[in-house]
Amino acid sequence: MFDQWGVRPTYVVDHPIASATSSAEILRTFVREQRCEVGAHLHPWVNPPLRESPGAEASYPGNLPADLEGEKLRCLVATIEETIGVRPRAYQAGRYGFGRSTAALLEELGFDVDLSCSPAFDYSSDGGPDHSRASTQPGWFGRRRDLLSVPITGAFVGAAGAWAGPLHRVASTGPLRSLRAPAVLSRLGLAERLRLSPEGFDLSALQRLTRFLRAAGSDVFVLGLHSPSFLPGCTPYVRTEADLRRLFDTCRAYYEYFFRELGGRHATASELYDELMAGRAGVQP
Asked: Are 205 and 243 in a shared domain?
């Protein structure tokens, strides 16, 4: 599917994938054939050293002590270099768990792009970060302002306009949530929380989100999903072969919409970084 559309996915890989001979060999081949970019994805509970107390809060890498988060990320980068043969330039924190020490670690290890921001989504109920008010646009950050944040595309959309986010947040708390108030708001077309992903969202939702963000001035879109969804039974989104066909059909139909109808183009995480950095420096890309 990716080859058909000329898409070079950015695979952010965790330690089990990077350290397993079979998966590392596949990714090494894809890299050699220039069919993908490989980034780093830190899931603390499966990434050495395993010194934290397991639990929901510790599953967000940004919640770990800075020295432990650093040790884990250095281990992951070294493993990717050793087994896949590339130095990752893109990073995504597991569970979108970017923390207070993460930016400094990314600078230290030579990363260029962070994909950890998940606009419209709040993970604070079990100790994670709240991205519900985050911008959908890429932005420069870090001590030298040369790290690029590229948010996973998501937003509150609906007839409520600027009130869609606040409405959805209120509906998602306390007794209103138990009354399925967010679903009611969505069915009424007032406020719905969407992510640009075939996992849990159909083509119509992806198109609504894209149109909404384009009208708001966005011109960078990140379509994301988890690789276990390509094997039925591994995620809640794909339980059967029929679910898998729907997922592929949604991806293909969205590519048709994005590339042909909208005239969009594809870039990997580091390609986007290089282009935006060149533009910032006043260099014609």
From this structure: yes
Question: Which residues are 72's β-sheet partners?
Answer: none
Distance CA 49, CA 52 (A): 9
For 224, the 3-state DSSP assignment is: coil
In whole angstroms, give the CA distance from residue 101 to residue 45. 18
Q: Which among 166, 193, 220 is the end of a domain?
A: 193
175 burial level (CB within 10 Å; 0-12, 13-18, 19+): exposed
With a CB cutoff of 8 Å and minimum separation 6, the contacts of 179 are none
Instruction: Measure Cα distances from 61 to 169, 187, 274 in Å.
Output: 25, 35, 27
Per residue in 129-182, pLDDT (tens digit) is: 999 999 999 999 999 999 999 999 999 999 888 878 888 888 887 777 776 877
Distance CA 90, CA 102 (A): 13
The first and second tokens of residue 71, run together, are 């040790």
Amino acid at the residue 50:
L
Containing structural domain, residue 160: 154-193
Pairwise CA distance, residues 242 & 178, whole Å? 30
Please state, in angstroms and rounded to a whole number, the distance separating the CA atoms of residues 44 and 14: 9
Please state whether the peptide bond connecting residue 49 to the residue before it is cis, i.e. omega within 30 degrees of 0.
yes
The DSSP bridge pattern shows strands 113-114 and 90-93 to be: parallel
The CATH number of residue 140's host domain is 3.20.20.370
